[in-house]
Amino acid sequence: MAEKATRELEKMQLQEKAKIKYKEWLKKKRAEESEKKKKEKEKEKEREAELQEKKERSEKIFKEWLHNARNKARPVLNGYGYPHGKSTGYHDGISYPAPAYCNPIPWKPIHVPPPKEDSIITMKNSKRPEYSQSHRSAPMVIYKPPNNLCVGSLCRKQL
């Protein structure tokens, strides 16, 4: 009986220790979760602050652009219905609209390197130029119609 009582007492002590350890573990887990939630909230606040700052900056830049766009020089109205900048009230078919865009960089031709030695034209004793093998093309064929073509009554007169 005494042994049973000591065993039950040991079991009770083990259960109490287990409950205490479980409570400590649970406390620790809850503290970690609360810390994690705090960090997430801080990150969310930082994101919102950044978005707000971006929005304010973009609105400021847009207002500056709008202010500058009002003061920007307008193109001369030489388009349809505005010859010499004055409205005629009708479409002028002769005049073209003023160009909306003019390229500030002028056009420059593409540099082509000089031909290689293979394509040099050589002259033989004859006065015709002879091209190198790489540029030789099919011989030119000239088509001559025959002289005996007849159309209708003309054919009888020639015979």
Report the total helices: 2
**Major sheet: order of its strands?**
1-2
Which strand-content bin applies to the residues? under 5%
Mean pLDDT: 77
Tell me which oligomeric state these chains represent.
single chain
> What's the order of the H and E elements?
HEEH
Q: N- to C-terminal separation?
A: 154 Å
Work out the number of β strands. 2
Identify low-pLDDT runs: none
In helices, the fraction of residues equals: 40-55%
C-alpha-based Rg, rounded? 49 Å
Secondary-structure-derived class: mainly alpha
Can you summarize the main beta sheet?
Answer: 2 strands, antiparallel
- Indicate the overall shape: elongated
Question: Concise description?
Answer:
This is Coiled-coil domain containing 34. The chain contains 2 helices and 2 strands; from the N terminus they run H-E-E-H.
Descriptive report:
The structure is a single chain. A two-stranded antiparallel ribbon has the order 1-2. The protein is mostly helical and about 160 residues long. The chain contains two helices and two strands; from the N terminus they run αββα. It has helices spanning about 1-70, 155-159, and strands spanning about 120-125, 130. A hairpin with a 5-residue loop joins strand 1 and strand 2 (about 130). The mean pLDDT is about 75.
